[in-house]
Amino acid sequence: MLTNKFIFLALVIASFTSLTAQDKKLNFFIFVADDQYMDSLGCYNDGVTQTTPNIDAFASAALKFTNAYTPSAMCAPSRGALYSGIYPLRNGLHANHWKYFKEVKTLPDHFTDLGYESILVGKNHVKSKGNKYYKWSRQVANEEGIPGDPSKHRTFNDEKITQLLSSLDKPFVMVYGSNLPHAPYIEEGYKGFQKYEASNKFVDDEFGRFMKIFNTLNLEENTVIIYLSDHGANIPWSKWTSYNRGVKIPVMVQWPGMKMSAETSALISMVDFLPTLLDAAGKEDLSSFDGKSLVNVIKNSSPSQHKEVFFAHTSMNINEVQEPYPIRGVSDGRYKLIQNLNPSIKHPKVKEFYTGEATEWELYDTSKDKEENANLVNNPEKREIFEKLKKSLLAWRQSQQDGGLEAEHLIKPRTNTKKAEAKKKKRKGTKKGSSK
Ligand SMILES: [Ca+2]
């Protein structure tokens, strides 16, 4: 009798425990570094970088992706893809400082439907104008606290974030948009580092501060944590281009309840993160996204669902650029095919790096040619791979309703409003002065 009672009690406790574990919904946190290129992290560079100890420690207990790409090496289109799960040409946020098409649903809206708080801390860079589906339930602006010139960059307030997270009565999805290591770089000499490295160290400190908050609040056991960068840095062949130093991004994931200390070469894209998080949160229909859920890649080491990932870039709506230089591209993880739609001009943003003649097509074997120097497009041995990738790219462009060069001519050039205002003020001041 006693034994039966004991068994019954044990069963009740067991079912209660499993129920609470199931009922407790996962939280999600994405840390987004700004303009951080992959090789500047120790964990992607044989550990030689001294600036990123917190991120490296996280990576050593995470699943590290070595074949992750953003579709565009620019702030707004990259974030636009992250928050929509849709490539920039199809979500509308193709040009920098641009906005979504009005019917595109985004991360905060999807998660509100699932009963979550959606929190954006720090950098936004995505306009909500004209789109009612881009509305975070909480937005926390960064504050001063960066050494050097505090007017240029800001950081989060640890106490405010701690209070906010401990006050929630719903599960949450939180994104932190750091302002660094984006130029202008922070005070030289920060913890012994200079320029980019000093800024990179600051990002690492920020990440460490978030991990401390999660640890203090005991949130780690129930929170999926993703570390990534929006794209590469403002260095040659990186930001503004579709070369790997620009579009290949560091991505590390820690998943609760899983021991992870591994890396995967699964081919993934920025558009995959939203469907992944929604899949884990219980959304069933993920068919509207260009991205694919990574839950099985992460939890079961399944292969990637992509054979290829794609790139789309425009120089229009970048400050002071007058002419469109559209780039489209595709990578199968090894071969990269780039199509320049206006090769008659040099890339207006990075023309100082271009020495030779621009061509419409560029083909690289990125497994052997990491710098993407040797264009294989006229190599007869690579003819088959060229034709295959070209076919995929053209089919993808069609599926994205890409208007190409003609459509980009319709985007009005953007003037730097801050600079223009300063000039205007100066002109007014001069007039005033001269009338005296
Ligand atoms: Ca950026």
Question: Any idea of the CATH topology of the largest domain?
Answer: Alkaline Phosphatase, subunit A
The CATH architecture assignment of the largest domain turns out to be 3-Layer(aba) Sandwich
- Topology, number of strands: 14
In terms of per-residue confidence, which ranges show pLDDT below 50 for 5 or more consecutive residues? Answer: 1-22, 430-436
Round the Cα radius of gyration to an integer and report it: 23 Å
Pfam families: Sulfatase
Region (Disordered): 401-436
Protein name: Sulfatase-like hydrolase/transferase
Keywords: Signal
Task: Please describe what this structure looks like.
The relative contact order is 0.14. The protein has two domains: 281 residues, Alkaline Phosphatase, subunit A, CATH 3.40.720; 96 residues, Arylsulfatase, C-terminal domain, CATH 3.30.1120. 33% of the residues lie in helices and 15% in strands. The longest helix is centred in the N-terminal third of the chain and has 22 residues. The N terminus and C terminus are likely disordered. The chain contains 13 helices and 14 strands. The protein has an eight-stranded mixed beta sheet with strand order 5-4-6-1-7-8-2-9, with helices on both faces. Strand 12 and strand 13 form a beta hairpin. The chain is of the alpha/beta class. It starts with a helix and ends with a helix. Bound molecules: calcium ion. The site of calcium ion has 6 residues, from loops.
